[in-house]
Amino acid sequence: MMRTHTCGELNEKNIGQKVVLAGWVHRRRDHGGIAFIDLRDRYGITQVKFNPIGNQQLLQEVDKLRSEWVIKVAGSVVARPDNMLNSKLQTGGIEIEVAQLEVLNKSLTPPFELDEEKAKEANENLRLQYRFVDLRRPEVQKLLALKDKYIQHMREYFHRLNFIEVQTPILANSSPEGARDFLVPSRFHPGKFYALPQAPQQFKQLLMVGGLDRYFQIAPCFRDEDPRMDRHYGEFYQLDVEMSFVSQEDIFAVFEPLMIELTEKFSNKKIVNLDENGKFKQFPWKEALNKYGSDKPDLRFEMEIKPVTQLVENCGFSVFAETIKNGGVVHGLKVDGGAKFSRKEIDELTEIAKGKDAKGLAYIIVKENGELQSPIVKFLGEELAQEIIKEVQAKVGDIVFFGADSWKTVCASLGAVRNECGKKLGLKDNSKAAWCWIIDFPMYSYSEIEPGRLDFEHNPFSMPQGGLKALEEKKPLEILAYQHDMIINGFEASSGAIRNHDPEIMYKAFEIAGYSREAVDGRFGALIKAFKFGAPPHGGGAPGIDRILMVLHDLDSIRDIYAFPKDGKGKDLMMDSPSEVDAKQLKELNIKSVN
Questions:
Q1: Are 592 and 586 in contact (CB under 8 A)?
Q2: CA angle at 139 for the pair 133 and 141, rounded to the nearest 5°
Q3: Backbone angles phi, psi at 23, to 5 degrees
């Protein structure tokens, strides 16, 4: 028998039993000729004792043991002396008196210590290079076990609701999901490529056409996007869900209870900011940008942006007046207690606003006696300045920041300033979870890559509100879509929509974005064909599992959720990928490297 117990389960109830344990040498201590080993596996640590009396040879073998050697011990469970009890360990009341020792494998000296605090001091690249060692840390193993519990709970939840889990293809076709594809060359079809799915979007819609009215999947997704704190490079997992014969509210009714359960069961956060019916609040996209400067607002704290365009339309401050004259807007952001910001801090906030294309950041400080301190008051005039302060409900000790530019730039810049002020003032309370929905996204917006060209604002497969009539009669930028994002604490946790299931509506929607019928047939032929064979109305969403865990457990990076993460440049330092391949492989795929 390799082992009878794990290193985390023995306690005083096992005293007197003969046991066999196996694991890694975590620490070794010698006291007066008696040697102690802390033996570790993923379940915990057990102290084992080697007494030389009557077994000197055993002690000589123990002298050879080093950190991270893999060993097996057999012996008896005994109570620890009162002065050696360890309340920090689940096994802290007992130890094993060892009768037999077997070395299962030796180890080189680890490249860094596995003690949690000291391991954090190790260079991240070094830990990623030796990830198989880093995985032994209890903190890493707990996160992986936690992710397993989340996924298990999700599966149980959807099975209770009569959903069926279906695995969709990994080798798929290119799809305009908003990011670069990972392409896979075909050996059988020279010059043609598969694409790893950015999401199972078309496949799950085809499942709806096939009559599987309630589908879900723990789906791997692949996107060639730049990594960031909340986005792992290359691959991620989402809870992919689709339903037939549903409205947007039906979708919300499925997702909300699950997110509440996950928050309350697995995190230490308290859910806040629900509406009077105990549901997630809903904000139309435009309202969210007007109020919070973001379509993923952090609602753990109040700090609303207010429009002041009408008040300053004909003011003496040329920056405001000229902006409005040229079709722009002026908004104000009141920051409670912000009068204490130093000149340096205000300059830092100005640079944040400029990072969102703002030309600057005007401000007014409300001093203790009600006096207004600002370079712009002399241009506005005292009376108008006081009127603005009243409009945004500022009081003594507050600061009001102003954005004057195009609507989107003002929203984005003041939203970034709001977010930073929330950090500076300690308003991002990690004991809270503020969920909400963003709805009524515009169907189209102007392309950031090709100025003047219309593109889809969100998911191209969404149903426009008003259907074909809206597409034919409304201006493109006025058309709203049945799209929704689920937000938690300022992060996008999920995207979803009521899907377009009508071929003619789909052709028209893509036509407005510059796609011909032939182009639509070429790229989405299977979907178009399927819609002509009795497609039911359907919709769904896809929460990002890794991002939700990152937010609910206040992790520094989404990479902490992965067993084998890529680094900040998308490299796997452990496996040394991406790597070159030999010329023979390229020739088989009819590919030639130009580097």
A1: yes
A2: 65
A3: 175, -160
**Res 594: pLDDT:** 78
Which residue do the tokens 């979870």 mark? 433
Question: How deeply is 300 buried, as exposed, middle or buried, from its count of CB atoms within 10 A (0-12, 13-18, 19+)?
Answer: buried
Q: CA nearest 439: which of 484, 477, 481, 480?
A: 484
Tell me the pairing of strands 94-105 and 44-50.
parallel
Q: Are 584 and 245 in contact (CB under 8 A)?
A: no
CA 57 and chain centroid, separation: 54
* Residue 137 token pair: 């840390």
Query: b/e for 173-197, b at 16 or more Cβ within 10 A?
Result: ebbbbeeebbeebeeeeeeebbbbb
Crossing angle for the helix pair 545-552 and 138-160, to the nearest 10 degrees: 120
User: What structural domains and CATH numbers belong to the chain?
Assistant: 12-105 (2.40.50.140), 141-281+437-562 (3.30.930.10), 301-427 (3.30.1360.30)
- Tens digits of residue pLDDT in 252-276: 999 999 999 999 999 999 999 999 9
Token pair for 394: 């500022």
In this structure, which amino acid lies at residue 352? I
Distance in angstroms (rounded) separating the CA atoms of residues 418 and 292 = 7
Pair 227, 570: CB distance under 8 Å: yes
Burial of 456 (0-12, 13-18, 19+ CB in 10 A): buried
**Is residue 95 helix, strand or coil?**
strand
Widest distance between CA atoms in the chain: 98
Read off the tokens for 439: 């709805």
The number of angstroms, rounded, from the C-alpha of 588 to the middle of its chain's C-alpha atoms is: 39
User: What are the structure tokens assigned to 322, written together?
Assistant: 């000229």
CA distance 324 to 321: 5
Task: Name the one residue in this structure whose structure tokens are 């530019």.
Answer: 405
Question: Which of 241, 295, 266 has its CA nearest to residue 487?
Answer: 295
pLDDT at 116: 66
Quote the pLDDT of residue 84.
87
pLDDT in tens, 170-206: 999 887 656 789 999 999 999 899 999 999 999 999 9
User: Residue 366 carries which DSSP code?
Assistant: E
pLDDT tens sequence across 306-357: 999 999 998 888 999 999 999 999 999 999 999 999 999 999 999 999 999 9
pLDDT at 450: 79
Rounded Cα–Cα distance for residues 524 and 502 (Å): 13
Token pair of 526, please? 């299977």
Phi then psi dihedrals of residue 355, to 5 deg: -65, -15
Handedness of CA 322, 324, 327, 330 (dihedral sign): positive
User: Residues of the chain whose pLDDT is less than 70?
Assistant: 54, 116-117, 119, 176-178
Here the tokens at position 148 are 């397993």
In DSSP terms, 332 is beta-bridged to: 306, 402
Cβ(439)–Cβ(379) below 8 Å: no
CA angle centred on 532, ends 531 and 537, rounded to 5°: 40
Strands (E), 193-324: 193-196, 214-223, 234-244, 270-272, 281-284, 305-307
In one letter, which amino acid is 16? Answer: G
